[in-house]
Amino acid sequence: MPTWRPHPPTRAATVYTVHNLAYQGLFPHADFRLLDLPARFMSHTGLEFHGQLSFMKAGLKYAKRVTTVSPTYAREIATHEFGVGLDGVIRGRGNEVSGVLNGVDGQVWNPADDNALSSHYSAAQMAGKAQCKQALQRELGLAEKTRSAGVRRGQPVDVTEGPGPRARRAAGHRAARRAQLALQGSGEPGLEAAFREAAKAQPQQVGVRIGYDEAFAHRLIAGSDAILVPSRFEPCGLTQMYGLRYGTLPIVRRVGGLSDTVVDANADNLRADRATGFVFDAASVPALDGALQRAGEVFHERPRHVGEAAAPRHGAGFLVARRGKSVSRAVPEHRGQLSISAPRWRPTATA
What we know:
Number of domains: 2
Number of helices: 12
Oligomer: single chain
CATH superfamily of the largest domain: Glycogen Phosphorylase B
Mean pLDDT: 81
C-alpha cells in the first residue's frame, strides 16, 4: 500500500457539489486505515462523524468551494432542520457555500417534438395538450370528462421527502373529489397499497401504475393540468421544471429548489402577472388541500386564451415558468376535468 504524502503546492482548486445532504457516504471507523492518511484526519475536526468515517464531511471540510443544486437549499442545509447533523460544518464554511440551480434538457423535454406523445403542442399552439390529456385518460382507464382537472403526482415519493403517509393518502382522495389523480412509481409498500386502494375505489378518477416507465412519464406530464410536488425537503427538483416545460402547473411546498423555481399564484403575483404555480408552506394535509383547492379554482375560472411564449427561463424555454406570464394567462385553453399526476416515485431510502 502506498504511503501517504502531502500534495505539492498547486493552483488547482476543488469544488464539492452536494445533491442531497442526507446521503452522506458513511463507513465504519476501522475503514479509515484503508485511506493511509495521517491519524489527525480522523478527528471531530476532520472526517470523523459520530464514530464513523464520513466522506461527505471530508468534501465539506476540505474543498475550496461547496455548491449545491439550488440557492434555497444552500441556505437550508446550514440550519438544524435540514442540515442532517452537518449544519455546523456548513455554517463554518460561510459564503464559500452557494447554490447553482439545476435545469432540464430542452431537447429531451420538449412537447413540440416529444416522440412519447400522441400529439404535440407549444405555447403558441396548445390544442395538442387537450389531445394528450384525452389520450392519458384513455390509457389509464379514467373517465374522459370535459370538466375534470388532471393532477399528476410528480415528485419521487419516499418517507424522507414527501409529506407523511396520511397527507399523501388524503391528497389522493381529496384531489379525486373534483379532479383526476394519476400516479406512477414504486416505493413503500403501505403507500403502494393505499394508492391502489384509491384507484380501486374510484377507477374513473384515480389511475395508478406501480413501477416506472420514462415514456409514460412524458405522457403523464403532457396530459395533466397540474403536477404535485409536496416535498418535505427538496434540494432542487426537476419534476416541477418538467411540468413548467409542458404547460403543467406545479403545486409545490415552499422548500429547497421548489422555492426558487415556482412563483405562487397569490393575489399580488397574479396582479403583477408573474405567478407560475401554487405554493404552500406547511407539510400538512390542510396546507396541501388548500393549494389543491386554489389550483381547482384557477382551472375552472381561467380565461379563454393562453399568453404567448416569453423568453426562456433557466435556459429551458418553459411554456409557463417565465417572467411576465402569469398562471391565469398560461393555463391551457382546453376545457375539462383537472388532471393531477405523478410519474416518478422513488423507493424509500434513509441515510
